[in-house]
Amino acid sequence: MSRYVDRMRRAADACAGADIDAFVAAPSPDLRYLLGYDPPPLERLTLLVVRRDADPVLIVPELERPLAAASPGGASIELRGWVDGVDPYREVSRLLPPNGRVAAVDRLWASHLLGLQGALPGVAFASASTVLPGLRAVKDPDELDALRRAGAAADATFGDVVGLRFAGRREDEIAADLGRLLVEHGHARADFTIVGSGPNGASAHHEPGGRVIEPGDAVVLDFGGELDGYYSDTTRTVVVGGSPPGFDEVFRAVFEAQAAGVAAIRPGVPIQEVDRAARAVTRDAGFADRFIHRTGHGIGLEIHEPPYVIEGNETPLEAGMTFSVEPGIYLEGRFGVRIEDIVAVTSDGVERLNRSPRELRTVE
Ligand code: ZN
Ligand code: ZN
What we know:
With about 375 residues, the protein is α+β, with helices and mostly antiparallel strands. The chain has 10 helices and 18 strands. The strands form 5 sheets. Strands 4-3-2-1-5-6 form a 6-stranded mixed β-sheet. A hairpin with a 2-residue loop joins β8 (about 220-225) and β9 (about 230). The longest helix has 21 residues, at about 140-160. The model has no long low-confidence stretch (mean pLDDT about 95). It binds zinc ion (2 copies). One zinc ion binds near residues 324 and 340.
């Protein structure tokens, strides 16, 4: 229970640091993080109100109060039930300063935010991911362990999939193999299985379909899922039988960009330096305009969460932060290459949570 008290305390402190009066969280990964309570988001309002100068309160539908009370952090906060027919937004308004600043989690239904704005016309609402982006960024030791297990299970999935036949099979068959293997290796479920073969690999988030994979194709494999509440996300690019023309040079650039990005990681370094280090390699190789996305994203209770590894993010790296390093080069009509590992910042450098070989792998 104390971990949730600590986390709500930290959220309150972060509000004070950001000149925010309160932080409100509807059912979402943030509520799960702060309270261990994970109900589905619904039309009836459930809202955790964390205030900088008062104790936290959970506004909850009366019929769900027993569920909330039984949650890991439920006994550590005041629960205020509301019954159908009462305006729950009025209940929330009694907890907040009428002219204050309130940070709201990104996953808050528009109906709820509009209800809150109606009950609190003087309050300025802000996006919590903008004003409190660091809330979940530094992981606890057991969170790091869960991410390590998820990474190892994704690595085992890759180790198995490269032993399967690619040539003559459809992308969506390989995607189904990836999904099955993720679960076999311990994931609760697979959340995404991108298989981009040949020209389809140039579409970074390609939805695997009926294209039959041929010898000489490059294939981008980007897959992950949830294990013990935390996510895996890794990408390897393989070739079938041998490389298509011009591929090896592109692969080398992405391989070295990924290594350069990871090598830039240590505590205190502004996050944008990781993006710059990776991007310098692809630029020097002549592909500046074909690396068309940020270098990475935080990962934890969500697949994509702060911190984002992007130019302009000057947040210093801290031990315990976890994120992806995933440069890519995409040549329309030909192929794509992406290599992605999840990493954790350590007290003096970096730990890769994905260990499967990054060197070019030829499959059959
Ligand atoms: Zn990915
Ligand atoms: Zn990713």
